[in-house]
Amino acid sequence: MFQYKIPVSLYIHMPWCVQKCPYCDFNSHTVKQTPDYDNYINHLIKDLQNDSIFCLDRSIHSIFIGGGTPSLFSAEHIDHLLSSINNIISIEKNAEITIEANPNSVDAERFNGYQQAGINRISLGVQSFQANKLLSLGRIHNPQEAIDAAVIAHNLNLRSFNLDLMHGLPNQGLNDALYDLKQAITINPPHLSWYQLTIEPNTLFGSKPPVLPDDDKLWDIYQQGHQLLTNNGYQQYETSAYAKSNYQCQHNLNYWRFGDYLGIGCGAHGKLTQPDGKIIRTVKTRHPKGYLDGRYLDNSFIVTSNELAFEFFMNRFRLFEPCPKLEFEERTFLPLQTINKQIDQAMEKNYITEDLHNWQITEHGKLFLNSLLEIFL
Are residues 147 and 206 both part of a single domain? Predict the structure, then answer.
């Protein structure tokens, strides 16, 4: 049966931050008084117990602890959480287990504690190595704290670590953007997430937009930044993800390959394939108060067959690797014939190519990804 071939990952959301960044539209809540972290961990465990039936005897392929600021939680909290998860659903022996961290909320002792708890990958929200750019982004760390945290992560000899960097920042020029990349390359992380700042509604930047680089400057930043990363051994394997050989983020790859994932914690989303082939999406209660009252599930719905092709390719064509045709059938339960017209149209526009077994997005398709995806709506 197809569903047993689909890996299942686990996303865990930690909702608190010391300060809300003006560009952030994630479900995060400013810490006004110290939250009851112990209680929240206990509710995460109960939430997972409720959802464990969706695993259908599968083990957890990867775990990502995101936020918010997960590094506000102690190593003891993370150890208790991961141990409890493994008692509910077995975690694969070589599973990638990531925690996000802010540079100013970590030190060597805390990182060591996370590693002892089972964390083998850390993702640092650096964003920039320049003080004025960090200030404009509302970040509460400084460049030296970012460097120090990255060096600690590097010296731990983890399975991997990632630096999050942004470009297209307020009043950012080409040299500023390349400076950040050069500083990151000096630290030599196995993985870099390098993505453009976008203005989202319901954020401070959404109501008071800053002055951002124009399209020509953004294109120069992307082209020269991409070349710099490529020249230093980083391969772009997804729209905004670069990695050294064999260091791609396995958790995100499972998302983009339309794998399954459980989502626990405030506002977490899940995608789960059922034995009858139906795909259920779950959304958890966003606000900590409701979640801590035990009201975990906010909404669940079945993805309709009309939506499946779009959802599959919305994820799959973010990746630059070939897309197996068999994977489409196995993960949507749809026959290839249902998308023949759309595939033909995408090829006519030179967005994709195909051979007997795979589709491949073209360089033209990468530039016009939204137009490519609209074909499948």
Answer: yes
